[in-house]
Amino acid sequence: MQPERDAKQRQLDADRVPLDDRTMTTDQGVPVDHTDDSLRAGTRGPTLMEDFHFREKLTRFDHERIPERVVHARGAGAYGVFQLYEPLGDLTTAAFLNDTSTPTPTFVRFSTVAGSRGSADTVRDVRGFATKFYTPEGNFDLVGNNFPVFFIQDGIKFPDFVHAVKPEPHNEIPQAQSAHDTFWDFIQLQPESLHMVMWLMSDRAIPRSFRMMQGFGVHTFRLVNASGQGTFVKWHWRPVLGTYSLVWEEVLRIQGNDPDYNRRDLWEAIERGAYPEYELCVQLVPESREHDFDFDLLDPTKIIPEEQVPLRPVGRMTLNRNPHNFFAETEQVAFHTANVVPGIDFSNDPLLQARNFSYLDTQLLRLGGPNFPQIPINRPVNEVRNDQRDGFHQHRIHESRTSYAPNSISGNRPAATDGYRHYQERVDGVKIRQRSPSFEDHYSQATLFWNSMADWEKRHIVAAFLFELGHVERPHIKEAMVRHLGRIHPDLAAPVAQGLGLPEPPRTEVHANASPALSMTGQPQSVA
Ligand code: HEM
């Protein structure tokens, strides 16, 4: 049964080019009757410059590629709808979080991070889980990952981190994210990464299916209600099918047999009507409780344990349509953490602040200039009205004789009564390049993660460390990593040290906060 066409699908209809049996034309609309031979002087002579059809065809081919994403280059997308369970007016004015009668159209792109566009799906890596909500008040992008934390605390480190993760500069080897010296060198010198590295060495880094994968907004964001009151929020996607991983031996086999494994699974499930579903949940923290935790809410290397702040389900997304054209839709989609709607705002997490600069900046290059929001997949479903103008690939014909404000010639646009208002937060401080001491603890939650694992999960983590660190050439990097693991848990460090032929680090006291009773995710992880 075909799902009902939503506002985004109806908008896209105007841009579709159906396959039909009408005759071919050039880009200028000139009919073409022969496309198999170039125009030449005699049957064996040189090709003639005047063959505009030949030149256009070759030129268009020569320019088909655009830069792949600088990270998250490999991905797969799908359309869906988001259905809200109950209005959240006490928390936010966002229209799509208050209207239960009309589902919000969405587009999701799942991705790996380190590999290039043609790399294999099932590598050990973080997975992107980016969602565009086409709301009546504009696009809201929830640009998340399948891990709830990140490698670094400040976005100024992102270029360093990605340079360490990507293949080494001299020979572009290795393609595997973590099996090389530069990655582990960065980690051993940057212990804030250790919590994320524990997730990366766990089976969470080899998801069985995009349909069985959690998503996290990672940062603390803010919801703002009609009285201007803010509430801190962490976003979570929970797959209705449950969270399942591959095991490493499967990964090794699948990469050879079907590098498109996750992409194919998503496509085929949607084609056969087994629509992937995810519940959107929130963890809410009143502003008054901001400092009630033994970590900083602004630190993206920390989770809020669910025992301290439980998850509240607020709605459900169903992915029910495959794209028609990979390039037009999945490749050209542009997500951005700063795409928020009234009632949703940022926190001062320094990683989030950096992302709010970086996505638009890179998309200006990747998608060829400032008019990429006009590309069909990126267009909001509501009308866009402003005085921006010109630029490469301008598709709209603005009829106004003026494009400035205020003006006395063609009238001013009335101010929106429901316009975006930034949360009124008092900000105070001296300009300083220094991290807050509240960001200093890098080990407790790594230990918490280890303690929350079942025995078989712990064995997989040890095996992953042995595989990845086993590829590291420089002994000092391996030794430093084993010392870090010793501070996370001696039961982790000992087998890794032994497997690498290194001395076991001295047993240090495990951090008092790392209670084994606290679960990391609220969902048991299992292999299928
Ligand atoms: C792309 C997530 C941190 C810069 C992406 C994508 C996701 C994502 C899901 C793929 C979007 C798509 O499918 O098109 C995250 C998460 C982060 C994080 C969850 C941390 C919590 C950062 C940071 C920066 C950054 C700190 C830079 C300061 C980028 C860039 C792209 C990207 C430049 C490519 C965007 C494009 O070309 O369209 N990220 N990211 N990310 N991310 Fe991040």
UniProtKB/TrEMBL annotation:
One of its GO terms (cellular component) is cytosol. Coiled coil: none annotated. Its EC number is 1.11.1.6. GO terms for biological process: hydrogen peroxide catabolic process; response to oxidative stress. Heme binds at R69, R109, F158, R355, Y359, R366. GO terms for molecular function: catalase activity; heme binding; metal ion binding. The active site is at H72, N145. Residues 1-24 have a biased composition (Basic and acidic residues). Keywords: Heme, Hydrogen peroxide, Iron, Metal-binding, Oxidoreductase, Peroxidase. Residues 1-44 are annotated as: Disordered. It is an enzyme of class 1 (oxidoreductase). Decomposes hydrogen peroxide into water and oxygen; serves to protect cells from the toxic effects of hydrogen peroxide. Belongs to the catalase family. HPII subfamily. This is Catalase. It comes from Nonomuraea jabiensis. The lineage of its organism: Bacteria, Bacillati, Actinomycetota, Actinomycetes, Streptosporangiales. The chain holds residues 1 to 528 of 667 of the full protein.
